[in-house]
Design brief:
Elements (H helix, E strand, L loop, with lengths): L7 E5 L6 E6 L2 E7 L22 H14 L17 H11 L7 E2 H7 L6 H9 L12 E2 L12 H11 L9
Helix pairs in contact: 2-4, 3-4
């Protein structure tokens, strides 16, 4: 991923663990759980991405996330910067933004919506590399049979998020 410089960051607490937020001049560029896969190394380098707890977009995002976890927010309205992904990834992320809270889609549904019905695995990769977890709701993507599939933030978080939103899904059998 390429991020539009300059980027600043903050960390906030959530019921599902600490969340790292990053913002560029274009908008919120990242939202990752502290232990999430595909989390950029720049988050651990204050010289690369300095901490700015007072940045207005980061503060607004923190407030909106608090409202979301309290069940009082359905949509986020912070400016987003998703320009760091490839054109293909961005097309997938735009579809994710259209999935309403409480609803889900399959990887196959998304591949059809972007006009590339055979790109299911590539869609899965783009979903997994989504830099804006929760706000670009990759947790709302399920397997074709309605079962939980991978989530970069962990299946326990995906389960919690879908439950919070009242979405139907099938738990994986052990």
């Amino acid at each position: 991923m390429k991020f539009s410089p300059p980027v600043v960051q903050t960390r906030i607490a959530s019921p599902l663990g600490d969340i790292d937020l990053a913002v560029s001049d274009l908008g919120l560029a990242g939202l990752w759980f502290f232990d999430q896969r595909h989390r950029p190394a720049q988050l651990d380098d204050p010289k690369a991405w300095p901490r700015r707890d007072d940045h207005p977009v980061l503060r607004k995002t923190g407030v909106q996330l608090g409202e979301y976890f309290a069940g009082k927010r359905i949509r986020f309205d912070v400016p987003l910067d998703i320009n760091g992904g490839t054109i293909f990834q961005q097309s997938v992320w735009h579809v994710l933004l259209k999935i309403p809270q409480g609803q889900t889609m399959s990887y196959g549904d998304i591949s059809k919506q972007i006009g590339n019905p055979t790109a299911v695995r590539a869609v899965g990769s783009a979903v997994g590399r989504n830099p804006l977890s929760l706000i670009v709701p990759c947790h709302r993507v399920l397997g074709g049979d309605g079962t939980l599939t991978g989530y970069a933030g962990g299946l326990h978080r995906k389960t919690a998020l879908l439950t919070l939103e009242g979405a139907a899904f099938l738990a994986q059998s052990l």
